[in-house]
């Protein structure tokens, strides 16, 4: 295996050798089945057909919500006129999310998708939170059909299969003030306040992102958990239908044994902070979601608000991605709460947004794998 003449040893070490390994192994990688991957990603996002079980279709669309590390930590139970949404605690990420805060926000995003899709299909819904702190905690959505699918377009519904977390450099273009006001309104929820940062106001947030990287990327347990959810090639992703696709972040596709040789060098605080700085500088803005309380109902509402924001952003041809380090590291989160004028509110999620390219979409597990029971 030889490197291109212009590729120095220093370059190799700084990039973890990934680019050079990709060039040398391109004949091997040709068999990774990218065509199959795209077919699977598109199948999860197909339009609702005229035939079929509508409740199952609502579940499929609910699962297109984002989740930490794309763990998809949800289960659904269908019964006559009701969909129940449960956390799947077998898919926890206890190092980065020990209190399951982000897990419940992921459920909030799935719930928002479900409600948007149900309205599009002509259902009236009633949502009840059953949150007593027991293993049976769940959300119940009662559905009553009020008529045929309403005429006309539903922009948020159409955005559900198009929304994606786009982890790339954006083009730096600003978003018009009118659109910013729409986005902020969409990101407002019950007890949830979005705080908008644009221009120079984004710079202080980078300090907290860097502080989070210093804590997380010097923690071997954190790195081990993260790597366990990275899918370094299409074959790995297709085998699990979850996790973080390497090329979904603009990185090359590699066999795991090759990636394992270099991943330790890539997961360094300085390297990640440099990448995050470029991402923030290229973004049109940051939105910090803060809630009045710090419990399961608040986490659900924050997840719902973030998904509404992301769906509306998608209708405006904007991309979004999470920068959650400042909300994940307790010491840094406390600083954000105390120093950013949140009036005691709890920071829950930090998103960046802007104009950027489309990247490969993540996979979702089949509906049968997330159902506890099916409707009779």
Sequence-ordered SSE layout with sheet pairings:
Blueprint: H1 9-14, H2 18-24, H3 26-29, H4 34-44, H5 54-62, E1 74-79, E2 82-87, H6 101-120, E3 123-130, E4 138-145, H7 155-159, H8 177-186, E5 192-197, H9 203-216, H10 220-228, E6 230-231, H11 234-240, E7 244-245, H12 256-266, H13 269-281, E8 285-291, H14 296-315, E9 319-322, H15 325-328, H16 330-339, E10 346-354, H17 367-370, E11 371-373
Parallel strand pairs: 1-11, 6-7
Antiparallel strand pairs: 1-2, 2-4, 3-4, 5-8, 8-10, 9-10
Class by alpha and beta content: alpha+beta
Strand order of the largest sheet: 3-4-2-1-11
Structural Rg: 21 Å
Specify the biggest β-sheet: 5 strands, mixed
Distance between the termini: 58 Å
Strand content: 15-25%
What's the helix count? 17
Q: Return residue spans where pLDDT drops below 50 for at least 5 consecutive residues.
A: 1-34
User: What share of residues is helical?
Assistant: 40-55%
Question: Which of globular, elongated, flat, extended, rod-shaped describes the shape?
Answer: globular
Give helix and strand order, one letter per element, not per position: HHHHHEEHEEHHEHHEHEHHEHEHHEHE
User: What is the multimeric organization of the chains shown?
Assistant: single chain
Query: Taking all residues together, what is the mean pLDDT?
Result: 89
Number of strands: 11
């Amino acid at each position: 295996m030889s490197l291109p003449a212009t590729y120095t040893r220093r370059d190799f070490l700084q990039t973890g050798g990934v680019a050079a390994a990709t060039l040398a192994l391109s004949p091997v990688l040709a068999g990774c089945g990218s065509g199959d991957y795209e077919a699977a990603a598109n199948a999860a996002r197909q339009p609702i057909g005229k035939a079929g079980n509508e409740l199952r279709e609502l579940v499929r669309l609910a699962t297109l919500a984002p989740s930490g590390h794309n763990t998809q930590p949800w289960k659904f139970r269908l019964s006559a006129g009701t969909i129940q949404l449960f956390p799947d605690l077998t898919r926890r990420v206890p190092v980065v999310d020990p209190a399951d805060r982000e897990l419940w926000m992921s459920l909030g995003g799935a719930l928002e998708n479900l409600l948007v899709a149900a309205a599009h299909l002509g259902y009236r819904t009633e949502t009840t939170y059953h949150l007593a702190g027991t293993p049976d905690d769940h959300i119940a959505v009662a559905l009553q059909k009020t008529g045929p699918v309403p005429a006309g377009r539903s922009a948020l519904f159409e955005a559900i299969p198009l929304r994606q977390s786009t982890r790339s450099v954006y083009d730096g273009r600003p978003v018009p003030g009118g659109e910013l006001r729409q986005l902020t309104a969409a990101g407002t929820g019950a007890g949830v306040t979005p705080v908008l940062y644009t221009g120079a106001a984004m710079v202080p947030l980078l300090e907290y992102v860097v502080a989070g990287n210093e804590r997380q990327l010097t923690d071997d347990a954190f790195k081990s958990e993260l790597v366990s959810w990275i899918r370094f090639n299409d074959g790995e992703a297709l085998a699990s239908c979850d996790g973080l696709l390497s090329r979904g972040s603009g990185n090359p596709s590699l066999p795991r044994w090759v990636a394992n040789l270099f991943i330790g060098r890539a997961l360094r605080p300085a390297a990640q902070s440099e990448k995050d700085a470029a991402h923030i500088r290229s973004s049109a803005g940051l939105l910090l979601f803060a809630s009045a309380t710090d419990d399961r109902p608040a986490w659900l509402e924050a997840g719902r608000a973030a998904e509404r924001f992301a769906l509306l952003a998608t209708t405006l041809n904007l991309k979004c991605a999470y920068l959650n380090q400042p909300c994940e590291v307790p010491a840094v989160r406390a600083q954000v709460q105390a120093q950013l004028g949140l009036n005691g509110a709890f920071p829950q999620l930090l998103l960046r947004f802007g104009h950027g390219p489309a990247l490969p979409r993540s996979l979702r597990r089949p509906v049968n794998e997330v159902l506890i029971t099916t409707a009779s």
